[in-house]
Amino acid sequence: MNENIENKLVKYLLNTANIDDLEVLTQWLKDKNNKQIFKNYIRTNYAIDINMNEFNTENAKKEYLQKIRQDKKVVHKLKRYKVLKYAAAAVLVFGLGYFFRSNILNSPIDTTPIIVNTNTIIPGTDKATLTLSDGSQIALEKGTSFQTQNANSNGEEIVYEVEERNSSEVTYNYLTIPRGGQFFVKLSDGTQVWLNSESQLKYPTSFIKGETRQVELVYGEAYFDVSPSSNHQGAKFKVYNAAQEVEVLGTEFNIKAYKGEQNIYTTLVEGQVAVNALNKIKILAPNEQLSLNQAKNTMVSSTVDVYRVISWKEGVFSFKNKPLKDMMEVLSRWYDVKVIFNNESLEVITFNGSLDKKLSIEEILDIIIGSTNNMSYEINNKTILLK
Questions:
Q1: What's the whole-model pTM score?
Q2: Distance between CA 18 and CA 309 in Å, rounded?
Q3: d(CA 206, CA 187)
Q4: Phi, psi of 323 (to 5 degrees)
Q5: Residue 260 burial by CB count (10 A; 0-12/13-18/19+): exposed, middle or buried?
Q6: Closest C-alpha to 181, from 148, 156, 164
């Protein structure tokens, strides 16, 4: 590693890197070999210092390690996405090393996990089921390909040809993402949609020229990067679900509307959206989130950290003061597992940190129990018991 890159890494870890520094790191990290060098660099330096029980005297390093120990938040500005998604796993390794010494060694109970079989538990992958207008279904996953009259899929995404019909005839496709999956679709108007695990999107194979473009998030979570109305004769873009309608002109936003959850969250990243629900219309500004509680029929808006909301599409789970029960619900979808709490008091423990979505389930659970006292887990096939 050359000195220039190393200096920029130190600045990044200290949260003092400027935009130019981040751009250099982004380009450097595009090389797969450099990604591993980056992870090894910070892992090795931290491990050496911990094992020797003394720290490098460089002020920069001491300050960073102090931040980790104080459980301060990871840098999470939008312009840092590409760098952060490679750093997340390494940062958590730091936390695991520290918490192991400060918590696990002093724990009064045996926190050794019991593992019967984890061969069936793997991180999620790009996969989906495409349902055509005639009801036929096609499995989309890595290594497969599929083609229709105006769509192509390489098994990891599906792209519809740019097309607008003058005819009033509209045909719809459904894209269903299972637990343990994610998928990307580019609609015929150029709108890009990233779908999270356990989600379903209904959309036309082509839009009618000049008319409002409409899609339905039947359930689940999706991130939309909408093709602006100026490219479509002023045609608006709307996203429906059972409880609300979101109207946009050209913007990026996230909707989370899972089955069985009371709240629907609409989060604006760029542009402007109008959310129509409960006979009210709420205009959102960037970094604003609207929470619609379907049980109480209430809407509450607040300013949020956008990174933590949409980091899932960047390959990172990010949690801030998240109860363990809610956190495990997110993880259960990605790893397609069932989670059981042996002790209800564990459900309310809060967690802060970022998790690389490529980590194994054992690594994830080791990090979790490493940051708490008096907790362990068992894995039996695809069931996880937290105790």
A1: 0.74
A2: 23
A3: 8
A4: -60, 145
A5: exposed
A6: 156
Q: Which residues of 223-254 are buried (b: 16+ CB within 10 A; e: fewer)?
A: bbbbbbbeebeebbbbbbbeebebbbbbbbbb
Collapsing DSSP to helix, strand or coil, 338 comes out as: strand
Residue 323 in tokens: 């109860």
pLDDT band at 41 (very low <50, low <70, confident <90, very high): low
E strand or H helix at 291: strand 288-293
Question: Which residue is listed with tokens 């519809």?
Answer: 160
SS3 at position 376: coil
C-beta separation of 55 from 61 below 8 A: yes
Residue 34's SS3 state is: helix
Query: How far, in Å, CA of 325 to CA of 312, rounded?
Result: 18
Cβ distance 262 to 293 under 8 Å? yes
SS3 114: strand
Phi, psi (rounded to 5 degrees) for 227: -65, 130
DSSP 8-state assignment for residue 77 = -
- pLDDT tens-digit map of 249-289: 778 999 999 999 999 999 999 999 999 999 999 999 999 99
Q: What is the pLDDT of residues 320-357, one digit of tens each?
A: 888 899 999 999 999 999 999 998 889 998 887 778 88
Most confident range (mean pLDDT) of 141-150, 248-257, 291-300 is: 291-300
What residues form DSSP beta bridges with 68? Answer: none
Residue type at 186?
K
Tens-place pLDDT, residues 107-137: 444 556 676 676 678 999 999 999 999 999 9
**pLDDT tens, position by position, 156-175:** 999 999 876 777 788 999 99
- In order, the DSSP letters of 174-229 are EEEEPTTEEEEEE-TTS-EEEE-SSEEEEEESSEETTSPEEEEEEEEEEEEEPPPG
> Strand, helix or coil at 384?
strand
